[in-house]
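User: Okay, second chain of the day. Same drill as before: sequence in, structure tokens out.
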Amino acid sequence: MAVVKELLRVENNGTLSFGDYTLASKTKLDGVEFQGDLYKVKTFREITKLEKNGMFVYESVPGTAVENFAVTDAGVSFKVSGVEHAQFTIGLAEESPYEVYVGGESVGQMSTNLSGKLSASVDLNGDTGVEVKIERR
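Assistant: Same drill. Structure tokens below.
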């Protein structure tokens, strides 16, 4: 999987792709409209962050590239790539249980905190992306 050179791209299938973990300095793109909402991305090798209407959506440390990011009432799914082990945090419903799948395998059930954030980690090795799916229980 390649990095998203546009920083934030609306895909033909109704999903978002964002992030460029190869950048040496922080770069941002603001004001991208998608389905009536405004998105902002900040990305470089140390962090990738996505906001929707000024609210937290996704963050990874170190930076990652995310393809086909889709949010539904049932959860979220995306494909993530990067150069090393990364921790990501997703904004979801507050104090709710979710089943987390990485590479098609369940890594267990996790619950969001009071602010609706769920954190997990994934081993990455460059352009080979890993599928992540988080389903509400």
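Residues 8-136 form a domain with the Chondroitinase Ac; Chain A, domain 3 fold (CATH 2.60.220).

User: Thanks, on to the next one.
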